[in-house]
Amino acid sequence: MNVAGDLSKPRVTGDPTQVLALAVRWGATAELIWSAAESLRTLDAEGAQSDAIEAFLASAGEVEQQLRSVHGRYQGAGEALRAYAAALEEAQAASAPALREHGLAVDDHDAARRLVEKYEGMALVAVGEEARADYEELARVQRLRLAEAAERVVLHGGRVDAAHAAVEAAATTAIARLDDLEADGPRDSFWDDVSGAAGVAFDGFQQWMEDNDHWIDGLVTVAGFVGMALAVAALFIPGVNVFAFALMVGVLAVTTAQAAVGTGEWSDVAFAALSLATFGTGSVLVAGAKTAAKGIAVNRVNGLVASGQSRSLATAWVKATWDRAAPGLLSKSLRQNLGDVDMAQIKTFLRRDRLGACFDDPVAVSRVVRDLKIAHALNASDYVVTVTRMVQPPGEAVPGKVRTR
Q1: DSSP one-letter code for 377
Q2: Which long-range contacts (C-beta less than 8 Å, at least 24 apart) are formed by 196-205?
Q3: How many domains does the chain have?
Q4: Does 198 reside within a domain?
Q5: pLDDT tens digit string along 331-355?
């Protein structure tokens, strides 16, 4: 135990009432299983008039044994949880007063330490033997208090630690008991557990999607109109294409969920994925062209320096040329490039009338222009697909579409 008062686990957490309630529930389940097993055991085959009844009664004994095995698991689990709940409650009852006393002891320890330091300092600067002796006596008394407080810190802190250790030991025992019960009785395979949990989760999700399909369809419709508006606004306002991309991701997720549960069509998913893929590909090409354009800018600076300009002046000129190439809010170049700010800026910067363009590498420029043309074509096709799909309400984009739900 740290005399300074630090506790690694100050409070014993947990709710013994909830643990006990679960133990009672498992115990009641065990009783129901036992009752079912007894009912099977007392079945009478006399008077059975069909092969089906005789076959059922022949297997009743095996079913009874399985039920009794399951009964033992539930009963043992309930007992293990009861023991853990009792240990948890006892540990909390024991640690609560010890924790309070530990806090008081820490406060006393800190106060005594400060007074020891104070009186020892005053004794060093005291004028006269009598005053020095008084301060030394006061310091000695506080050192006694300090030692006594340290003992209480260790004592009560140890009690708190002991309560934690008792709970941990009880938890280990309960877990070991549950593991033994799992090993002894019938058990599901890993894939049974996973598939069962996944099936329950999917059934719940499917039911929720079906129950809320009316407003989910409405949400996708609204997203369609918003996407169309963003596609148009991106022609004039820089940065809007980022929001359009986020909307495409959301539409793809929702349409995929609808198709998976049977309230939508996989054709909607295909078009949403196509729209997102072409949009992303165009953005990647533009990003690469922007990097290449910066390399061309460096070549322009070097060419101007070689022609006799100072490097600082050449760098400033080329940077100003790049900055002035950025399109304005309503510029023609921005509309021509479907609202892509970077594409419009790169194309303007590469014009032959720009400062230093005479030093450009024709091969490098042609590569950038090629990538920009491809990106422009992809973005244009993406806008066509996106706007076409979003303008039409869900379920009407494909003629003759029949909802599966």
Answers
A1: H
A2: 205/257, 205/261
A3: 2
A4: no
A5: 777 677 767 777 888 888 888 877 7
